[in-house]
Amino acid sequence: MLDELFERLPTTGESQADGQFRMYVDRTYNVTGVGAVASGTIQSGRVEAGDELLLGPMQDGSFRPVEARSIEMHYHRVDSASAGRIVGIALKGVAEADLERGMALVPRTADPDPVREFEAEVMVLNHPTRIGSGYEPVVHLETISEAAAFYPDDGKLLPGDTGAATVRFKFAPYLVEEGQRFVFREGQSKGVGTVTDVSRPS
């Protein structure tokens, strides 16, 4: 069902191979003799074994320094991997218990700024009545799956409407970028959206 919703989102067709490395954690493992492993699809850039990275955000919004101890792709050890590849990265400096789906890996030199809320352009595909301020579906963005409250700029959104809204994650901050697309669902209600602004309120 989520795949069908994502198909409604426009594709950019742009290669992210030359951008800064970023990977959202999809699955986590504890491998004997290796330790914590985070797997996911590399969203942009390139990673090499031995790279110094940041992992997060943690619950308090901080990022933890880690090292890419080794990289595995299709059950084979590789020296490096680039955008579009599904990899498992063994991480030095963190326990598997501290890894969570939805976290991101970025270079140590990055200055990630996670947010609890962002502005978005959303389209309501299906809803029994209307979406009002405080409506709380689950937002699926990259590997993030989190309850979030919606606050439409016009106070409400009806089925078929497209409009601006503030979206606030309920439990934790996440690394979100302008231009990222997401799906939201709650029961039979569903819709799609695009992040338009991640500036923190002054």
Description:
This protein is mostly beta strands. The chain has one helix at 2-7, and strands at 22-24, 27-31, 35-44, 46-48, 52-56, 64-73, 76-78, 80-82, 86-92, 104-107, 117-126, 131-132, 138-141, 144-152, 156-157, 162-169, 181-186, 189-197. Strand 2 and strand 3 form a beta hairpin.
Order of helices and strands: HEEEEEEEEEEEEEEEEEE
Specify the CATH homologous superfamily of the largest domain.
Translation factors
The radius of gyration is: 18 Å
Shape: elongated
How do the strands line up in the largest sheet?
A: 1-3-9-6-5-10
Question: What is the compact description of this entry?
Answer:
With 202 residues, this protein is mainly beta. The protein is 3% helix and 51% strand. It folds into 2 domains: 22-107, Elongation Factor Tu (Ef-tu), domain 3; 114-197, Translation factors (Elongation Factor Tu (Ef-tu), domain 3), CATH 2.40.30.
Write the layout of secondary structure elements.
Blueprint: H1 2-7, E1 22-24, E2 27-31, E3 35-44, E4 46-48, E5 52-56, E6 64-73, E7 76-78, E8 80-82, E9 86-92, E10 104-107, E11 117-126, E12 131-132, E13 138-141, E14 144-152, E15 156-157, E16 162-169, E17 181-186, E18 189-197
Antiparallel strand pairs: 1-3, 1-10, 2-3, 3-9, 4-8, 5-6, 5-10, 6-7, 6-9, 11-16, 11-18, 12-15, 13-14, 13-17, 14-16, 17-18
Give a quick set of tags describing it.
202 residues; Elongation Factor Tu (Ef-tu), domain 3; 6-stranded antiparallel β-barrel; 6-stranded antiparallel beta barrel
